[in-house]
Amino acid sequence: MSRSTTKPSLLHGLAAASFSATAGATAALILTACSPGSTDAADGPAPQSSPAPQGLLTEAAAEKIVDTFQSVNNRANAVRDAKLLGTVEAGQVYEQDSADYKLFKTWPATEQKTYTQAFTYEDREYLIPPASSGANWFAVTSSPSDDPKGNRRSLAVFDKVGDTYKLVMALWTDPKAIPKIDTDRHGFISPVDPAKKVGTLAPNEISAVYEDFFETGGKTASQKLASTPTTKESVRIYKVRNDGEAGTWSTTRFFAADPAHPKVYALRLENGGVLALVPTAHTEEQILKPAYMGNFLITPSKREAVFDSTRRTVITNEYQGQAIVELPRTGKPLAHDLEYQLVDSR
Question: What is the per-residue DSSP string for 109-168?
């Protein structure tokens, strides 16, 4: 995971921590008893309170996982070591970050310098489900150490991959885009079944709906998702896809694709709605117009050439993405933030 200032955006190429009460801590048994001379009617054993439910893991364990990730991530970013990064990352975020390493040489020097500088995750808030929920993941919100004003905050999910917790999804976003998370009296979050509808859509239906913004400009999606700065930017990309000199001799279209890692993560909000981290993906196809076929070839851009430098009649780019989406009990879902990265060109 890279720092917020260099994380790829929606645009196409074109450790000090504060914690809530310790999760999973076992409450001390509270005994009530009568003195030997008591005339109380209760003669049997004193009643005991039920032990507090256990969390998937303790906050201390979660902190250690995030600390380890932070250290390894910084070392991997410094030298663009995808294999090392893969020991602590998986899922959509790894698809994007490993592509970052390949594209690094195409970035401006100032951006390269920023990317390789170590940073830490501050002001962490751990979002841990109860062990009884059946969920194998936990989340954490934090701010980057180089953002003292708190303009950006991350929402990250660590899931069990084999026997290891790895970062699988993470986005930097405006702090206001992370609504108040619902927790029970023990401080645990409530994971939500991604296949269960919240209002008009289920979290696992968001990706297919959202990609319509790129395919058609939102003819269907605009009826199902609320208008936000994120959706407006997607529509803009669709509208300008054939602008410029390239549009005179080629046609560009977008097609929905399967996310490399389709798992959706969702949790209950205090207002009764649901916050979901959603994987999404599409391809971008640039093809020569019929009049130019046979006599011309398309030269890949610097970023596209990282994956395939061959001049060709059709260039197909694959983008893997992830989004933070709020699904209210009533009304249309809101896409708060969305990030894509070019992960292949052929």
Answer: HHHHHHHHS---EEEEEEE--BGGG---EEEEEEEETT-TT---EEEEEEEEETTEEEEE
pLDDT tens string 203-252: 999 999 999 999 999 999 999 999 999 999 999 999 999 999 999 999 99
Instruction: Locate 339 and state its tokens.
Output: 């990030």
Alpha-carbon gap, residue 5 to 147, rounded angstroms: 9
User: Taking CA 220 as the corner, what is the angle to CA 11 and CA 234, rounded to the nearest 5 degrees?
Assistant: 10
* CA pair distance 10, 96, nearest whole angstrom: 12
DSSP, residue by residue, 230-261: HHHHHHHHHHTTT-SGGGGTEEEEEEE---SS
* Amino acid identity at 136: N
Q: What are the tens digits of pLDDT across the range 281-311?
A: 999 999 999 999 999 999 999 999 999 999 9
Report d(CA 173, CA 110) in Å as an integer: 22
Provide the token pair at 35: 């003195």
CA torsion angle 66 69 74 79 (round to 10): -170
Minimal CA–CA distance to 320: which of 101, 94, 111, 139? 94
**What's at 238, amino acid-wise?**
Y
H/E stretch holding 283 reads: strand 274-288
